[in-house]
Amino acid sequence: MPYFNYPVIFDVLVVGGGHAGCEAALAAAGLGMKTLLLTQDLDTIAQMSCNPSIGGVGKGQIVREIDALGGRMAAVADLSALSAHMLNTSRGAAVRSPRVQCDKRMYQSAMKHSLELAGNLALAQDEAAQIWTEGSALRGVITARNTRYRSKTVILTTGTFLKGVIHIGLSSFRGGRYNHPPSDGLSPSLEALGFKLGRLKTGTPMRLNGRSIDFSKCEEQKPDEPPPPLSHFTGRHGRKLLSCWITRTGERSAGIIRANLHRSPLYSGRIKAAGPRYCPSIEDKIVKFPHHPTHILFLEPEGFDTGEYYVNGLSTSLPEEVQLELLHSVNGLERAELIRAAYAIEYDYSLPVQLDYNLEAKLLPGLFMAGQINGTTGYEEAAAQGLMAGINASLKVRGGDPFILGRDEAYIGVMIDDLISKGVDEPYRIFTSRAEFRLLLRQDNADLRLMPHGFRLGLIPGKFKKNFERYQNAVERSGSRREPQKHGAEKRPQRADDDMAPWTRAGAEACGRITKEYGGYITRNLREAERMKHFEHVRIPEKLDLSAVKGLCLESRQQFLKIRPRTLAQAARIPGVTPADIQLLWVHVTRKLRPPQADGVSRRDEG
């Protein structure tokens, strides 16, 4: 069958319309690139396949970083918010994190509309089936309909669709998510190009009909008042928000699970791939934590105009009849109606160590990857990678230098460095504990850290710059005041008379107070970060024969050859590499980089 060559040549082609794809496409289009978003189904753009929430510990920091760079996720989450909380308010400033529960249909519709309104951005419904190359050069993609889309760069944001297989009990069927077909062509296409792929597993809990829940037996979790916005550009929420509810499993629940483990694909051996350790199934919790008699469950509404509830904490792949029996063992859910069964899904991912810091593939220049294809889990992690891939693909087209964030600048930088330096053996999720300098990477100072980049790149309109500069000055003034301030206050939505909008006086005072309160620790973190930057600037030449470095232990040598670190700092963060091996590598690199001395005179002789 002959190909149809699409008549437009694009600068950036984004494959996939999930959270990574949306941010990638909007960033590239916002930077003036002729952009195409190609997805299997335009009606599922930005679908919240799992929990309809944005933010959380670590994740909330990343969302505010996305927003400070000009991304869209935080603003859409605020627009569709039905409940909102600032987590860990009783703990230190480094771990306080905003979380917004969203109306999932409203979120999806608002994000899709953002894409439809964006200049320079075209949308197309088709399945990318093959990476199109000529010789060793990237040309674009070929779709299942035999259409060839030509593009200077391609960003793959395929989510869980690559050879996806869904499991419910001992029944398995193909799918990228429930009732949506997988993408089977891209995996063999990538492997043919030399990419190494692996398999991972994730899952999603069941959904219930709210009318069948006895909320009188549950604990009410009211939204914060006033609710904390995720976006720096959001004003006061204009609607009454909803409550979530808390209940727990019990001994009867544990007994039901233990009696049916042989029917679990996770424990019967049908699922071979590794799942997320920090978001385990209820089967995993019962087996691995038998000393816990109960496990907390959150009942979260999925929208203003639906009675559907998401059961956060009850992820499982047990058979549907067992899921129903399990539900009825929980307080308040004795008569609950199961309207969507929980399931697990296995899918292909590309080993992220095959990428460079700008998320570009080392094997095929011009090909970028973002989101779950890189081994991560979570909307926020995906969106951050999509934003960075969209920016860097655009900079590549322009011939500019890559945009790379350091570990001391952003959680986004921590995540990307972790992925390409360490790889993954389970779905990667961001936590505040992953950052060495988390006191520098707070949610309250994401704007101060990253908004200057957003202005410089052109992703934040210049009309906001004066307000931002006034906000910076207000933070500095607030941090230098001597009068005591109330501890633990957070940013509040802007007042109608706040002439510093969209950044508030309350926000400036909170940020300045934290800076002053933790001043000694922050200064120490800054010094440590400066010391670390020394190794960041020591480049390892691409053609350096790492196998010739004498004295390296076998594991370090194998890791260096596998990952091919670009800097000494990246090499130091690779698992299994010892400080002694870094010292040997440093000596070897500096010898190779040292210019030859004329006439046999050494530096010592010159002194």
Description:
This protein is α+β, with helices and mostly antiparallel strands and 607 residues long. It has four domains: 4-200 and 347-444, FAD/NAD(P)-binding domain (3-Layer(bba) Sandwich), CATH 3.50.50; 207-344, Beta Barrel (Elongation Factor Tu (Ef-tu), domain 3), CATH 2.40.30.260; 462-529, no CATH class; 538-606, GidA associated domain, C-terminal subdomain (DNA polymerase, domain 1, Orthogonal Bundle), CATH 1.10.150. Helix content is 33%, strand content 19%. The chain has 19 helices and 20 strands. It has helices at residues 19-30, 59-68, 73-79, 104-117, 186-192, 251-259, 265-268, 282-288, 320-327, 379-398, 411-422, 446-457, 465-480, 505-517, 519-536, 554-563, 568-572, 579-593, 603-606, and strands at 4-15, 35-39, 53-55, 81-87, 97-102, 121-125, 128-134, 137-143, 147-156, 165-168, 171-174, 197-204, 207-209, 219-221, 244-248, 296-301, 308-312, 338-340, 343-350, 367-369. Strands 1, 2, 6, 7, 8, 9 and 20 form a seven-stranded mixed β-sheet that branches. A six-stranded antiparallel β-sheet has the order 14-15-16-17-13-18, covered by helices on one side. A four-stranded antiparallel β-sheet has the order 11-10-19-12. A hairpin with a 3-residue loop joins strand 8 (137-143) and strand 9 (147-156). The radius of gyration is 25 Å and the shape is globular. 48% of the residues are buried.
